[in-house]
């Protein structure tokens, strides 16, 4: 039969309690880190992917509209210059 060594038993109890304490500290540190991350990122203005895609689509359509308007303006300016040239030529005759 084995006899129990009290020093060894006390040492095992000490290790068990230390392991429990270390695990508790680890959990608490993890929870604190999560909370800090929520605070940091919660204050920032992030947008969802859907909102980003919607704004991206609006910007693309606005760019297309601007290009179409530039082309239309160029045609109108050319027509205005031609009309002005014709009027000047007609007055000079």
What is the element layout, followed by pairings?
Blueprint: H1 6-42, H2 49-92
Describe this structure in words.
With 93 residues, the protein is mostly helical. It has 2 domains: 1-45; 47-93. 87% of the residues lie in helices and 0% in strands. It has helices at residues 6-42, 49-92. It starts with 5 loop residues before the first helix and ends with a helix.
Tell me the overall shape. rod-shaped
Protein structure class: mainly alpha
- What radius of gyration results from the CA coordinates? 39 Å
What is the CA–CA distance across the termini? 134 Å
Number of helices: 2
pLDDT average, as an integer?
Answer: 88
Helix/strand order: HH
Percent of residues in beta strands?
under 5%
Domain count? 2
Helix percent band: over 70%
Instruction: Count every beta strand, where a strand is a DSSP E run of 2 or more residues.
Output: 0
Uncertain runs with pLDDT below 50, 5 residues or more?
none
Largest sheet: none
């Amino acid at each position: 039969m084995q006899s129990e060594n009290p020093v060894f038993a006390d040492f095992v109890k000490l290790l068990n309690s230390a392991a429990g304490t270390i695990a508790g500290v680890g959990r608490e540190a993890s929870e604190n880190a999560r909370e800090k991350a929520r605070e940091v990122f919660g204050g920032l203005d992030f947008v969802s992917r859907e909102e980003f895609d919607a704004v991206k689509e609006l910007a693309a359509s606005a760019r297309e509209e601007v290009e179409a308007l530039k082309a239309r303006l160029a045609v109108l300016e050319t027509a205005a210059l031609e009309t002005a040239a014709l009027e000047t030529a007609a007055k000079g005759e």
